[in-house]
Protein 1
Amino acid sequence: MTHPATVAEPLVRLRNVTKTYPAARGRNEVRAVDDVDLDIAAGDIQAIVGYSGAGKSTLVRLLNGLEPATSGSIQVGGTELVGLRERQLRPIRLGIGMIFQQFNLFESRTVWGNLAYPLQIAGVAKAEQQRRISELLHFVGLPDKAHTYPRNLSGGQKQRVGIARALTTNPSLLLADEATSALDPETTHEVLRLLKRVNEEFGTTIVAITHEMEVVRELADHVAVMENGRVVESGAVYDVFSSPKQPVTRRFVGTVVDDEPDAEALAALRSRHPGRFVKVELREGGPRQTDIFAVLLERGISFELVFGGIEEIQGATFGNLTLALDGPETSVDEAVRELAALVTTKEV
Amino acid sequence: MLTVLPTDTRLGELWPDIWQATGETLLMVALTMLIGGTLGLLLALGLYLTRKGGLYENVVVSVVLNVLVNFFRPIPFIIFIAAVQPAARLIVGTGIGFSAVVFSLILASMFGIARIIEQNLVTVPPGVIEAARAMGASRARIAATVVLPEALAPIILGYTFAFVAVVDMSAVAGLIAGGGLGSFAQTFGYRQYDPTVTWVCVLILVALVQVIQLLGNTLSSRIMRR
C-alpha cells in the first residue's frame, strides 16, 4: 500500500495571473503579465529572467501587492493577495522583504536609521530593534558603518545595507529586483554570495529578477524565463541550462554557455580547421569525455576541440563540444554513427 | 564739487524710525513665513500627493488645487493687496494697516511657496517611496517620514528663496499704510528727495537678505553633506 505523497504547499503560488495597464493617450492596452502560473517552494531561490519589458519587474511587484493584479490568484504563505486593499496588504508586506537595483536607501537617515525604519513600522520595541539591527549589520559585514549616511557608501555596501534592511522583520520571502545590475562583476559576486547565505542561514525564500544568466547560474535553484508577459519556460537551473527549449531561453543560456558556433564563427573555424564538425552534448550521468575520445582514438581519427566547453551548475557538469574530425572518410562516418549512439550529436 | 549724496539729509534724526520700520519689516516677514510657510507646505503636499502617480492620486483634487494656485500666483502683489482688501476686512477686521498687509502677504506667499515646495518634493526618487511601501508603511507615514525628510535640503533652499521674495513683497505695504522699511524708504527717502535715507533702507534690506541667504545655504548644505 502506498501513502499519498504529502506535497508541501508552495510559499508562493500564482495561477492565471494577468496584469494589464489600460489604454491611454497614444498607447494601446499593455498586457505586462499574461496568464502566469508559477509555484515557488519555501526555501527555494527562484530566478526570473527576461529582456527589458518582458514583464518580470511587474511580476515581482505583484508578489507584494505594490502593483495590483488584474486577474488570477496570487497566494503568498497561503494568503490570497488579489483583491486586497492597500491597508490589508501592509501587514503582509512586513513578511516580504524587497531589495532594488538602485538600492533605494533613505539618504536622510544613517545606515542604522535605514534598518530601524521597517522595525518602527512593525512596532518593535526599542531594545529589540537595537539587538536586531546590530545582529544584521554584523551579518552583512558592516558593523562599523552604523552611523554612516548612505551617500558615503560604495554600491556594494549600499546593497548590503539594502539586504540588511529587507531582513530586519524576518521575512519568509525576499524579492530582489535586479539587485546586482548596478554593480561591477566583483561586487555582484559578493552580493550574490551574501544572498546565498541569507537563503541558507535564515531559510529565506528568494525571488530574484535579473537579465544576467551569470546571476542565475551563481544564485538560483529554479529559473523561469519570461517573454512578452508570459513565462515561456521554467524549471531547475541545470535542466534549463543544459537543454533550453524556447529560442529566448537559448539566447539567454548562450550568453554564458557556448552551444554551437553561429554561421559567422563557423566560417572562421572552417578556414582554420580541416575535417567534419560535430557537436557533442555531454550531460551529467551520461558518457564522459573519455568515452567520446576513445571512439575517435580507436579509429585513428585526429580531432580537435574547436568550440564549446564544460560547465558546472549546482555541482552537476554538462558541456557542448564542437569537434573537428579529420581522417579517412569511412572511419569518420563510422565514428560519427557510433557517437550518435552514445550521446546527442549534431553535424554543424 | 560734485556731490552724489546731498548733505542736507534728515538721516540723523530718522534713525529711531528706521529701526522701528526695520522691526516692522522683520515682524511682517516672520509672520508671513510662519503662517504662509505652513499653509504653503500643506498646499504643496496636497499638490504633490494628489498628482498623477502620487500616493493619494486624485485627478479632481489635483486639478482644483492647480487651478487655485495658478489663479493667485501670477497676480502682482501691488494689485493683489488691493484686490484682497474685502477679504482682509472680513477676516482680520480691517482693510488697511499692519494686519491687512500681513494677511495679504500670507495669502499671496502661500501659493508661491506651495509651488516651490511641490517642486522640491518631486525630486524625491520614486524608488525610495516604493521601498517604504514595500516595507508596509502607510501613505501618511511615507509622506511624513520619507518624503519630507528626503526633500529637506532643497525645501530649506526653497524657503530661503521665498523669504527673499516676501521681503520684496513687503515693500508694497505702504500702499495700505502697513509700515516697514519699504514704505519708510518711499515716504522719507523718495518723496522727500532724501536719497541717503533711501539708500540706508536699501542697505538694511540687502544685509537682511544676505544673512538669510547665508543661513539657508549653510543649513541646506549641512543636511545635504551628511
Protein 2
Amino acid sequence: MKLARLVLVVLVTCGASRVVLVAQQSPPQQQDEFVPIDQLPPQDQLPAAPLLVAAYAFVVLALFVYVVSVARRLTSVQRELERLEADIKRGSSG
Amino acid sequence: MFGRIVWLVLRKDFMIEVRSLETAYTMLFFAISCVLVFAFALVQEGRAPEGGAAGILWIAIAFAGTLALGRTFERERQAETLRALLLAPAARPAVYLGKLLGIVALLSAAETVLVPLVALLFQAPLLAHPIWLALILLTGTVGFAAVGTLFAAMLIRARSRDVLLPVLLYPITVPVIIAGVRATSVLLEPDVNTGFLQVWLALLVCFDVVFVTLALWTFEPLMTD
Amino acid sequence: MPKWFIPLAILCGLMCATAPILVAQAPYESTMGLVQKVFYVHLPSAWMFLLAAIVCGIASVRYLFGGDSRQDRLAWAAAELAVLFGVVTLVTGPLWARKAWGVWWQWDVRLTASLMGWMVAVAYLLLRKYGGPGSDKLAAGLALFGMANVPFVYISVNYWRTIHPTTNVVPTLPTSFGVPLWFSAAAFLLLFVLLLRLRMRLEEQRARIDALYLSMDT
C-alpha cells in the first residue's frame, strides 16, 4: 500500500535524524557548548549519555516496529480484498 | 422474586457441588499444595520469613479462586446448562448474584482450612484477631469473586478460556490483593494499628460495592450474543 | 483514507524531524543534567498512553451499550496504541530513573498504576487475539472494568510512599523547557491520531473482507 509506505519513509527519515542528533549532542565534551560552567552537573558516577541514547533509540525503534507491523497487516488485507473482489467479478460475469 | 432466583441458583450449585465435592476437593488440595510450595521456597533453617504469611495466604486464595471459577463454569459449559439458565425467564443479575454467592461460599470454606494451615506452617499469629481477619477475608473474597464470576461467565464462550481467565483476572484484582495482604499483615504485628485496618477495609468495601454494581449492570449486555 | 491523512502525515514527519533540534537546544536541567532530556519523550508518551486508554474505555462502553461496530474498531485500535505508548513510557521511565533516582524501578504509585494499566491493555489484546468469536463484547467489558479499576489501583498503591514528581511541575516550567515539551507533545498527538486512523483502516478492511465472504456464501 502506497500510503503506508509513505508514512513509513517519513517516520524512518525523522527517526534517523533523531538518532543522529541525540548521538551528536551526547558526548560529554560537547556539553560545554550548551551550558555555562556554573550550571554543569556535578561529576556523576553514571554516564547519562548511554541512557539518553538508549531511551531515544527505543522510542524510534518501537514506533518503527509498530508502523511496519500495521503496514504489513494492511498490505496483506488489501491484497486479499482485491483478490476477493476480482473473484466475485469473475464469478458474476462467468 | 429476585431474591428467590438468587436462592434457587445458589441452591442448585450447592446441591451439585455436595453430590460430588469435585471442585471443593480439587481446589482445596491445590491451595494446600500452593502453601507447601511457598513453605519449601521461603522457610529457611526452620524459620519463616518476617511477614510472609499474609502474602502466602492471599496468593493461595487467589490461585484456588481462579481454579474454582474455572471449574464451576466449565461444568456449566459441558452440560450446556448456563445457556439453559440464561434462557429461563429469570433476571440476569439474579443469576449472577446466585453464582457469586456460590463462589464466595466455596472460597470461604477453603479459607477456613487455609488460615490455620498458614498460621501453623509459618508460625504466624493469624488467629489472634478472628473477627478482623474474618472481615478482611470476606470483603477480599467478595471483591475477587465479583470480578472473577463475571469474567469466567463471559469467557465461557471464548476460545482458550482456561488461560485467559487468570490473564484478565489478576491485573483487575490487584487492589484487592494489595489491600488484603496489607490488612492481614497489619494483623500480624504485635500491636495492631486499627486505623490502618479501617482504611484497608474501607478500600475493600468500596471495591466490592463498585464492582458488584458494575457486574450486575453489565452482566446483561455481556451475556447476550 | 480521509483527505487529511497525507498532509497530516507529512506535517507529523516534519515535526518529528524538528523536535530533536529543539530538544538538543533546550538548556540542561541543573540537578539532573543531560539525562533530563528523556523527559521530552517520556512525558508526551505517558500522556498518549493515558489518552489511548481513555479513548479505548469510552469507545468500549459505547460499544457495549450501543452496539456500533465502529466504536469497537476504535477501542481495538486505541488499545493497541495504549500498549505501544505504554511500552515507550515504561522503558524510557526506568532509563531516566536509573540516573535521577539511582534505581531502575520504584514501587511508587504512578509507576505501579501505569504498569497495571498497561497489563490490562495487554490482556485486552490477548483476549481479542485468542478469544475467538464473541471476544469483542468480552474485551469491551474488560476495558470497562479496567477503567473502573484505575482509582482503586491508585489509592491502594498510594500507601507506599511516592517519590515521583507530581503533575503540577508542568505549568510552572520555564519556557526554555516548555517549548520543546509542548512541541514534542504536539508531535506525539499527531502521531497518535495518524496511527489510530491507520489501525482503524485495517479493521475496516477486515470487516469488508468478512462481508464479502458472507455475500459469497449466500
